[in-house]
Structure formats: structure tokens, C-alpha cells
Amino acid sequence: MRALESKQLTILTTDRCTARCAHCSMNSSPERRARLSAEQICTYIDQALEDTAIRFVIFAGGEPLLLGDDLLKSLEHVRQCGMRSRVITNGYWATSPETASRVVLKLRDAGLNELNISIDDFHLPYVNSTHVKLAFDAARVVDFDAVIVVHCSGPNTTFNDAELDALLGEQLPRMYNEAREAISFAPTTQKPFVAVSNSTLQAIGRGTALDVGESLPAEQWPEKAREIGGCPWAVRSPAVTPTGRLVACCGFEVSGNPILDIGDLSTTDLGSLLNDADQDLPINMIALEGPYAIMDQLMQANPDLPFRPHYRSFCELCQDIVTIPALRHAMLELMPERAPHVLVRRAAILTARR
């Protein structure tokens, strides 16, 4: 039994994209060419079904629809395995009402449960907003479980809520309140559920170079983050990279990272790699104690470490801890001190499941 049990898997189908968004956490672009085949993806899904609790598969990228028939074959395999699926797309393919409807029906016939369509300041230079509208209109009349518009905003973005509502022709419900807390919706039998995932701009991946400003009052998010504690996504929501590596999360591009890159799926099966991750002390520190606790402990020992003055998410802080050599080295030196505390947390999780 794993203490860090995975419940969903993100397949980063390709690092190629029709866009080169300035905020892209995965650094995707038209020039990149790595991609997974349907055969690879189906193998990973079979391994997840056999030896994990994963029953939900997210297809992201890059732009997953660039896989063409390989995406449809993968979606069909997810359905055959009794799992659920989500596709995250920029809607570039919805060039006319007829084309939008044809693509949406192919996705639904292949078994897709949820379609997410992204639009914001950063996508608009590369994807016509009309295409997003056509994709949304085509998807909402199909019996998906959900059609979600993903809208990322920050202090300097101009495509705001009013512009989004005007484009869609209605005011869709938002999934998060101003404090970034998920809003609960009353159960409904009507399909699809439609809403806006009103995400906040983060300085991760390519977005690290952006001036993201303060998305919340200075102390509100850090206080909330410390209450949450461990990162909810590390290993519980792992990802497969376009080069076939299993990584601890899809918060930012971590292929090759000495802490969050778990291993090569061409040589070791998914279940075995998740077993390795479950026993990995640095990953456990991130997952069970959390990036803010790690930062607090490191700053107590050395206040001069190169942390930023403010962080707006677990991902921003985790990115610095695992990629800045001085911070990563300090974390590794902290491991012997934190190991007993991590073991206590792991034991509590495993006892609660018995």
C-alpha cells in the first residue's frame, strides 16, 4: 500500500502547440516536436489500471489535438478500461461551426467525458477568440459531463471577466471565489455542466519572466497554504511527459529534474515508478509537509537563501526549491532532520486506510 496514492494521471501528449503563450508552464511551442504514440499511451493506461488507484486520465500538452487519431484511440482505450477522461485544448481546430461540431463529436464518440477550452490574454495572440466560441458552442450541446472554459488572469491582463462573458454571450458560473477556494455547486442531472475555471496567473515555466503582481492580499495565500500543508498534487496527480518519463506532477516542466522526475517508463513500469516515488524522501517532504513548511525550515537555518519575497502558489515556491541549486541543496541537507516527521505522517495515512 502506498501512502502517496495516485488518483489521476496527466498525459502530456506532446510539447508541440499551435501557440507560444507567454505564461505557459510547460514551455510548449510550435517548434517543439516530442510526442507520445497511442501505443505508448495505452500501455501507460493499462499499467495504471493494473497497479494503481488511477481512474481518471487528463490529456494535456502542448496541444493534445495535434495527435489526431492517436488521441481518439487513447480516449477509446480509457473508456474500455472503465476510466474517465478530460482533454485540455486551445480550440484552434474550431475554424467553422461545421468543423467544430465534427471534432467535438469525434471526441465524444471516442469516450471523452470532459472538455476544457483555454482562453485568455496569453492565448489570444495565437488562437482566434471566435474559434474558442465555436468550440464551446459545439461542445455544450453534446452530452459531455462538463465543458469548462479555462481563463487565466493577472493584474495586467485585459481580457477580463466582462470580455469573456461578452464573447460567450452569457455569464457562466465561476469555479473559484476571490480567495481561490472551490465553489460548491448543487448536483444536477443536466449535461454538460458548464463553468469558467477562473485561474490565477502564476510565475512558473515560461511565465516566470512575467510580472504577475499580487493576486491576493499579501498574507492571505501564504496563511492558507500553511493551513493546507502538503502539496495535494505531488505524486497523487503524476504526469507522463512527451518523452515518456513519469514525473511527480504537471505544475511545471520537470523532466530531468533531480527531485521531481521519477523515472523512464520505457524501462520501468508505471506502478514500480510510483512505488519508488512513494518511498522517496524529498518527494514525501513536498507532498506531506509542503513547500511552505520546507521554506520556513530552510529560512530558519539560513535567512539569506535566495527565496522570492512573495509566492502565489505551491507551484511557484516548489519550482524554486527544486530548480535553484542553492535551495535544492539546502533541502537535501534538511532531509535527515525531517525524516522522522515524514515517517509519522506516512504512518498516520496508512493507519487511517486500514
Description:
- The chain is of the alpha/beta class.
- The chain has two domains: 8-261, TIM Barrel (Alpha-Beta Barrel); 278-353, no CATH class.
- Helices cover 38% and strands 13% of the residues.
- It is built from eleven helices and nine strands.
- The chain has helices at residues 38-51, 69-80, 97-109, 129-140, 161-168, 220-228, 270-278, 281-289, 291-301, 314-323, 325-353, and strands spanning 8-12, 56-60, 84-89, 114-118, 146-153, 193-200, 239-240, 245-247, 261-264.
- α1 runs parallel beside α2 (69-80).
- It is globular.
- The termini are close together.
- The mean pLDDT is 95.
Provide a quick synopsis of the model.
The protein is of the alpha/beta class and 354 residues long. The protein has helices spanning 38-51, 69-80, 97-109, 129-140, 161-168, 220-228, 270-278, 281-289, 291-301, 314-323, 325-353; strands spanning 8-12, 56-60, 84-89, 114-118, 146-153, 193-200, 239-240, 245-247, 261-264. The chain folds into two domains: 8-261, TIM Barrel (Alpha-Beta Barrel); 278-353, no CATH class.
List its traits:
single chain; 354 residues; TIM Barrel; 2 domains; 11 helices; globular
Parts with pLDDT < 50 across at least 5 consecutive residues: none
- Give the H and E element order: EHEHEHEHEHEHEEEHHHHH
- Give the domain tally: 2
Q: Tally the beta strands.
A: 9
Tell me the radius of gyration: 20 Å
The CATH class label of the largest domain is Alpha Beta
CATH topology of the largest domain: TIM Barrel
Q: Which architecture of the largest domain per CATH? A: Alpha-Beta Barrel
Strand content: 5-15%
Query: Structural class, judged by helices and strands?
Result: alpha/beta
Q: Widest sheet: strand order?
A: 6-5-4-3-2-1-7-8-9
- Principal-axis shape equals globular
